[in-house]
């Protein structure tokens, strides 16, 4: 294991421990506050009013963005979620909460209905979870599988990358490698940070 990998592994453990120490009720409150920050600044939505916004089904220690589903639809956006196919995440259009199922590690995934698969190039905004985000550069550190890095590295992707996290996940000095991608913005319960 390289020292860079070890550094990331240690940081992942430390961040996970920090989040686990926060009571479930506090995380729920912070998630609600993040949702309010996102809804309070709709300038991040696709300008054409009908664009595709990808959200995530979330693990239990991540910000809950699922309540944004209906709000995004009210704003005229199509909502997409990712399905995990081996090592690749593929975006799928989701019209109703009922079009979701529990996937890998309990993360909500789309049912993969016929005609619902989207291309990476269709995504105009991707709300992105992560374990840590660099407060100075917007660099993201995920769980180490590279799923979002592959999406953002796809030549067809031209969308806005918005990291979504709790404030305690914003740190200085997130280690990065050439395949890692920085966010355009990061939003927490305390507000927005822009890096674009």
pLDDT below 50 for ≥5 consecutive residues: which ranges?
Answer: none
Q: Strands across the major sheet, in which order?
A: 3-2-1-6-9-11-12
Biggest beta sheet summary? 7 strands, mixed
Average pLDDT reading: 89
Tell me the structural class.
Answer: alpha/beta
CATH class equals Alpha Beta
Number of helices: 4
Any idea how many domains? 1
- Which homologous superfamily in CATH is the superfamily? NagB/RpiA/CoA transferase-like
Overall geometry comes to globular
CATH topology: Rossmann fold
Strand content: 25-35%
**Which architecture per CATH?**
3-Layer(aba) Sandwich
Count of distinct strands: 12
InterPro entries: FTHF_cligase, FTHF_cligase-like_sf, NagB/RpiA_transferase-like
Organism: Phragmitibacter flavus
GO molecular function: 5-formyltetrahydrofolate cyclo-ligase activity; ATP binding; metal ion binding
Family: Belongs to the 5-formyltetrahydrofolate cyclo-ligase family.
Structural description of this entry:
- The structure is a single chain.
- The chain has 196 residues and is an alpha/beta fold.
- The chain has helices spanning 3-20, 24-40, 68-74, 147-153, and strands at residues 52-54, 78-85, 88-94, 100-102, 108-110, 123-128, 132-134, 140-141, 160-164, 170-171, 185-188, 191-194.
- It has one domain: Rossmann fold (3-Layer(aba) Sandwich).
- The strands form 3 sheets. Strands 3-2-1-6-9-11-12 form a 7-stranded mixed β-sheet, sandwiched between helices. A 3-stranded mixed β-sheet has the order 8-7-10, covered by helices on one side.
- It is globular and about 40 Å long.
- It is an enzyme of class 6 (ligase).
- Keywords: ATP-binding, Ligase, Magnesium, Metal-binding, Nucleotide-binding.
- Its EC number is 6.3.3.2.
- One of its GO terms (molecular function) is ATP binding.
